[in-house]
Amino acid sequence: MLDNNNPVPLHIQLKEILLKEIQQGVYKEKIPSERELIDKYSVSRTTVREAVTALVYEGVLQKIHGKGTFINQSPSINEWLGYLSSFTETIERMGMKSGAQLLEQGRGSDVEIAETLGVEEYYYIKRLRFADDQPVAIERHYYPLEVGLLLEKYDLNKVTLYEKLEAEGINLHHAEQRIMAESPSTEDAKLLGISDHTCVLVAQRLITNRLGNPIEYYHSIYRADKYAFSLKMSRGMRVG
Prior knowledge:
This protein folds into two domains: 10-71, Arc Repressor Mutant, subunit A; 79-230, Chorismate lyase. The strands form three sheets. It has a six-stranded antiparallel sheet with strand order 4-5-6-9-8-7. It has a two-stranded antiparallel ribbon with strand order 1-2. The model has no long low-confidence stretch (mean pLDDT 91). The longest helix is centred in the N-terminal third of the chain and has 14 residues, at 10-23. The protein is built from eight helices and ten strands. With 240 residues, it is of the alpha+beta class. β1 and β2 form a beta hairpin.
């Protein structure tokens, strides 16, 4: 139940309770009405609306005007931009099970990638990523050699790379990312279980530390039918 003495805001507590109940199958098709949730949890209308809206943004729920708020039976994965999240964090926030299969790792010296990182030699990791056991993405991570070698001791089929890097004292401070649509290679399409004539989403991201030094160059592809990127925007006051 909700705890008024908990420093976590009530709408966040309620959101987590609703998400857990959805995952446990308490609600099959739709959640209770706004009034029913207000009465059940003794909270304000604002608290209920904020909790439900958060789950809608995350793709767990969808509102249908005049009918209610329904549970997405096959929710797409929705990554909100503006916060540097790992694939694992995004998938688990959706209430899904994250998985990884290591495809390749080692040293590389491709000129373009090396120049992006400002090095002559780098360390790369290529993994196939899963959500609820379905292949969703292929991630390619490139690191300055001294950074990448820190990850060699871990089982890369199981760990979250950003979590391990931070545990090793590596600061992931700032990122710039570009997203585009492309056709996958025949090999990548086969790994993802899609046609090579299908468009995929491509994310290219450069992460730097507080000093502005490159820590990771990230190039990954995502199934466009399973994954989406979202961004909140506002229109500021115009002068003149």
